[in-house]
Design brief:
The complex is a heterodimer. Chain A is built from 2 helices and 7 strands, in the order βαββββαββ. In chain A, the strands form 2 sheets. A 4-stranded antiparallel sheet of chain A has the order 2-5-1-6. In chain A, strands 3-4 form a two-stranded antiparallel sheet. Chain A is globular, with a radius of gyration of 15 Å. In chain A, a hairpin with a 2-residue loop joins β3 and β4. Chain A has a single domain, classed as Alpha-Beta Plaits (2-Layer Sandwich). By secondary structure, chain A is α+β, with helices and mostly antiparallel strands. In chain B, 44% of the residues are buried. Chain B is of the alpha+beta class. A 9-stranded antiparallel sheet of chain B has the order 8-5-7-6-2-3-1-4-9, covered by helices on one side. The chains are: A alpha+beta, B alpha+beta. Chains A and B meet through β1, α1, β2, β5 and α2 of A and α1, β2, β4, β5 and β6 of B. β6 of chain A pairs antiparallel with β4 of chain B.
């Protein structure tokens, strides 16, 4: 594991506040929220040949290595990401990080 | 690895013209992807006359897809053919190694993950630099990125959420941010982070954050060092 990871969380629109609250409670300092739309197996429908994509939110949280696991598992549990269609969480190893307040 | 059925994951990011995002996802679903997330993004034009006419905001779709490592290269090649990424001004696709995944496709933190090293004949020395800056600083930040010789980048409108219970952040709890994504060679990526962090005074609270992720594979770069975004 590198010194820092980026946790990317993709959840339904409106869940970002809850994700950030849990991240704060577990020691993360902040995050960035991006509105987007998902087209997975469980949330894509076609109506009159028009794709209906579900509204989603992507949250980016940069955490130091010792916090990543705790934050990730707390979010996973609170949002029940293991159930299909609830969302997804992934971590990327970062090489160079500037501007993260410890 | 003890459990060979758990292949590590890669995050594939595709930047294409606005409207093609859904097409990219449905094409990818036939090639091993289980779905994707489409984000409205904007390219940054470098031509001065476009800027003078205020036509410098080029709409783009940024598609994120999480795929198993064993079909990542095939999917990138298929996308490259499908979207003609070899031609200029069509788009760019790249993959980032993902260390852990939680959710329905679990790759838990207890699993020891070894990201596959890039093949020797395809050793890409590129980095994806993500700069999360205040929306107000975005144009100047793009200029700074360009001053290093990089062709600019793609940006996404986003919202920051700082910890408001502590008053070190003297800002509203949801502030407008921009995420600027730039693909650059290792040396240039380092230069960009240095230049940007000096310009943004990044060590002061609320000014943003910059991080670099090594890119696994990349498609859509026309020539050596020249990006088509």
């Amino acid at each position: 594991m590198n010194a820092f990871q980026a946790i990317l969380i993709i959840v339904g629109r409106g869940s970002a506040d809850r994700v950030m609250q849990i991240a704060h409670e577990n020691g993360a300092k902040g995050g960035t929220i991006v509105p987007c739309r998902g087209t997975g197996h469980h949330d894509s429908h076609e109506l009159l040949y028009t794709a209906l994509d579900s509204e989603r939110e992507l949250i980016v949280i940069v955490t130091p290595g010792d916090l990543t696991k705790q934050v990730a598992y707390a979010i996973n549990e609170a949002l029940a990401l293991d159930e299909p269609g609830n969302g997804l969480l992934m971590t990327l190893e970062l090489d160079e990080v500037k501007g993260l307040l410890m | 690895m003890d459990t060979p059925e758990i292949a590590p994951f890669s995050l594939i990011a595709v930047i294409v013209q606005r409207g093609i995002g859904s097409k990219v996802v449905s094409f990818s679903k036939d090639h091993g992807s289980s779905g994707g997330t489409i984000i409205h993004a904007y390219g940054t034009a470098s031509r001065r006359w476009l800027k003078a006419l205020r036509l410098d905001n080029i709409s783009r779709d940024l598609v994120l897809m999480l795929v198993r490592d064993n079909c990542e290269e095939k999917l990138l090649d298929a996308l490259s053919d499908y979207l003609h990424l070899g031609d200029s001004n069509t788009g760019i696709a790249f993959s980032l190694p993902v260390s852990h995944v939680l959710g329905t496709k679990k790759l838990s933190f207890d699993t020891e993950v070894t990201c596959a090293p890039p093949d020797a004949d395809e050793a890409v020395d590129y980095y994806a630099v993500f700069s999360i800056v205040r929306d107000l600083d975005r144009e100047d930040a793009v200029e700074k990125i360009r001053s290093t010789g990089a062709p600019g980048g793609t940006y996404i409108d986003a919202f920051g959420s700082a910890d408001m219970s502590r008053l070190i952040f003297n800002m509203p709890s949801f502030s407008e941010k921009s995420i600027i994504v730039t693909i650059a060679s290792h040396a240039k990526a380092r230069e960009i982070t240095e230049v940007l962090s000096r310009f943004l005074k990044i060590d002061e609270p609320g000014n943003g954050i910059i991080f670099a992720v090594p890119v696994h594979r990349v498609r859509g770069i026309a020539k050596e060092g020249e990006l088509v975004i």
